[in-house]
């Protein structure tokens, strides 16, 4: 069979720094597991603005559509704060999500045992945590029309964004979440603000109906988004799978990242629907951004990017064994006491981005005993 086609888009800031460490894992797959890829790499975000005047070129979008999977780093940074709004670096990821119809963003938050002390919450609250946030990513207030900034007749302006969700948009992302709940802990919590927003009310009705119709075996609950933020800090282990819209999912997943110790630990997968030819578009990226505050200092934690690649192997290439080996290697490295700055705690050894990446490779290369 032909090599799988991967499109690698490192982006800006720490994006290329953490992506470099994935290269070591790709090398190991080739040497030890006989897995070879056709990898192409391109510029996105601010790097593309600098080189081509746009955050992403049409041909990169086309390459993403043709690839078996896309591995994305991060985009954005203060260098591009003055480019026109429609050309800002972040448009690269928004456009990829939209044009590939990547509507379901899976953001797992798991607390690895060696990192129990890295969370800002008490160990007893987070130990063993394993939740999955499913964030809708092509609808909601991110994309609804009308939008813009308008002049008001009497002077001053108004900024407009519109939250819209249709029945089918809600159903397709809820289905992904129900399916995950079924093979995990059997519980799904749907999060909206149906007390304030009609889009939230429809969300709740559609998820409820779908649950009754197709997923009677999954225990469905509903929670208002503000309460959910509080509950995630108070008692995060009450959750199994959470499904929510674009904006709430963005906020709640950054919040959940700190339960695990660091934003630098959390991977994600963004999946589209199955196409008529059987392929399923997918993009994998850490949930963190380009971290301009630490870019170039060799402090970035590469584990979220490496774990995103593991998710790529699992979901797009059905290489569960290799995905699990990579995840286990990351856990063993942490057990051995190595820490990047973001997860540092007393008595541990502080290491750079590349030393962390090398350590993961070394663990992978250890022969099973
Ligand atoms: P950020 O996620 O880049 O950083 C937030 C904080 O977390 C920073 O203090 C940073 O140093 C730290 N951090 C993030 N990743 C880390 C890692 N791997 N290791 C260690 N520490 C890490 O968020 P921000 O600072 O609000 O945004 C910076 C830029 O990134 C903005 O332009 C934003 O739009 C963009 N952004 C892009 C993406 C994406 O490409 N998908 C996601 C989020 C933010
Ligand atoms: C994320 C980011 C993006 C989002 C930005 C960069 C457009 O914060 O992937 O979480 O808001 O979706
Ligand atoms: Mn975000």
UniProtKB/TrEMBL annotation:
<keyword id="KW-0432">Leucine biosynthesis</keyword>
<dbReference type="InterPro" id="IPR004429">
    <property type="entry name" value="Isopropylmalate_DH"/>
</dbReference>
<feature type="site" description="Important for catalysis">
    <location>
        <position position="193"/>
    </location>
</feature>
<feature type="binding site">
    <location>
        <position position="226"/>
    </location>
    <ligand>
        <name>substrate</name>
    </ligand>
</feature>
<feature type="domain" description="Isopropylmalate dehydrogenase-like">
    <location>
        <begin position="5"/>
        <end position="360"/>
    </location>
</feature>
<feature type="site" description="Important for catalysis">
    <location>
        <position position="142"/>
    </location>
</feature>
<protein>
    <recommendedName>
        <fullName>3-isopropylmalate dehydrogenase</fullName>
        <ecNumber>1.1.1.85</ecNumber>
    </recommendedName>
</protein>
<comment type="pathway">
    <text>Amino-acid biosynthesis; L-leucine biosynthesis; L-leucine from 3-methyl-2-oxobutanoate: step 3/4.</text>
</comment>
<keyword id="KW-0479">Metal-binding</keyword>
<comment type="subunit">
    <text>Homodimer.</text>
</comment>
<comment type="function">
    <text>Catalyzes the oxidation of 3-carboxy-2-hydroxy-4-methylpentanoate (3-isopropylmalate) to 3-carboxy-4-methyl-2-oxopentanoate. The product decarboxylates to 4-methyl-2 oxopentanoate.</text>
</comment>
<comment type="similarity">
    <text>Belongs to the isocitrate and isopropylmalate dehydrogenases family. LeuB type 1 subfamily.</text>
</comment>
<keyword id="KW-0560">Oxidoreductase</keyword>
<keyword id="KW-0100">Branched-chain amino acid biosynthesis</keyword>
<feature type="binding site">
    <location>
        <position position="254"/>
    </location>
    <ligand>
        <name>Mg(2+)</name>
    </ligand>
</feature>
<feature type="binding site">
    <location>
        <position position="250"/>
    </location>
    <ligand>
        <name>Mg(2+)</name>
    </ligand>
</feature>
<keyword id="KW-0520">NAD</keyword>
<feature type="binding site">
    <location>
        <position position="107"/>
    </location>
    <ligand>
        <name>substrate</name>
    </ligand>
</feature>
<dbReference type="InterPro" id="IPR019818">
    <property type="entry name" value="IsoCit/isopropylmalate_DH_CS"/>
</dbReference>
<feature type="binding site">
    <location>
        <position position="135"/>
    </location>
    <ligand>
        <name>substrate</name>
    </ligand>
</feature>
<feature type="binding site">
    <location>
        <begin position="289"/>
        <end position="301"/>
    </location>
    <ligand>
        <name>NAD(+)</name>
    </ligand>
</feature>
<keyword id="KW-0028">Amino-acid biosynthesis</keyword>
<keyword id="KW-0963">Cytoplasm</keyword>
<feature type="binding site">
    <location>
        <position position="226"/>
    </location>
    <ligand>
        <name>Mg(2+)</name>
    </ligand>
</feature>
<keyword id="KW-0460">Magnesium</keyword>
<dbReference type="InterPro" id="IPR024084">
    <property type="entry name" value="IsoPropMal-DH-like_dom"/>
</dbReference>
<keyword id="KW-0464">Manganese</keyword>
<feature type="binding site">
    <location>
        <position position="97"/>
    </location>
    <ligand>
        <name>substrate</name>
    </ligand>
</feature>
<feature type="binding site">
    <location>
        <begin position="77"/>
        <end position="90"/>
    </location>
    <ligand>
        <name>NAD(+)</name>
    </ligand>
</feature>
<dbReference type="Pfam" id="PF00180">
    <property type="entry name" value="Iso_dh"/>
</dbReference>
<dbReference type="GO" id="GO:0003862">
    <property type="term" value="F:3-isopropylmalate dehydrogenase activity"/>
</dbReference>
């Amino acid at each position: 069979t032909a090599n799988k086609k991967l499109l690698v888009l490192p982006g800006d800031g720490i994006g290329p720094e953490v992506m470099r460490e994935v290269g070591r894992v790709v090398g190991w797959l080739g040497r030890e597991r006989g897995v070879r890829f056709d990898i192409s790499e391109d510029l996105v975000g601010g790097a593309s603005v600098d080189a081509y005047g746009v955050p992403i070129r049409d041909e990169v979008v086309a390459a993403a559509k043709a690839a078996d999977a896309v591995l994305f780093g991060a985009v954005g940074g203060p260098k591009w704060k003055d480019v026109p709004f429609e050309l800002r670096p972040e448009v690269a990821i928004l456009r990829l999500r939209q044009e590939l119809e990547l509507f379901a963003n899976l953001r797992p938050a798991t607390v690895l045992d060696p990192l129990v002390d890295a969370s800002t919450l008490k160990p007893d609250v987070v130990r063993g945590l394993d939740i999955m946030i499913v964030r809708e990513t092509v609808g909601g207030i991110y994309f609804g029309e009308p939008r813009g900034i308008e002049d008001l007749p009497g002077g001053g302006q108004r900024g407009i964004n519109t939250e819209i969700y249709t029945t089918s948009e809600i159903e397709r992302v809820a289905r992904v979440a129900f399916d995950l709940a079924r093979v995990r802990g059997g519980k799904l919590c749907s999060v909206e603000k149906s007390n304030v927003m009609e889009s939230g009310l429809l969300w709740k009705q559609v998820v409820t109906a779908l649950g009754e119709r197709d997923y009677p075996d999954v225990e469905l609950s509903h929670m208002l988004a503000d309460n959910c933020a509080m509950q995630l800090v108070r008692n995060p282990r009450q959750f199994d799978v959470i499904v929510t819209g674009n904006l709430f999912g963005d906020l709640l997943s950054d919040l959940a990242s700190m339960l695990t110790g660091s934003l630098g630990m959390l991977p994600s997968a963004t999946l589209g629907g199955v196409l008529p030819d059987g392929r399923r578009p997918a993009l994998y990226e850490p949930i963190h951004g380009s971290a301009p505050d630490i870019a170039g200092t060799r402090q970035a934690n590469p584990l979220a990017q490496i774990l995103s690649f593991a998710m790529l192997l699992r979901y797009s290439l059905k290489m569960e064994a290799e995905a699990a080996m990579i995840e286990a290697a990351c856990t063993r490295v942490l057990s051995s006491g190595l820490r990047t700055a973001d997860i540092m705690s007393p008595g541990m050894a502080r290491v750079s981005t590349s030393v962390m990446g090398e350590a993961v490779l070394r663990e992978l290369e250890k022969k099973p005993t």
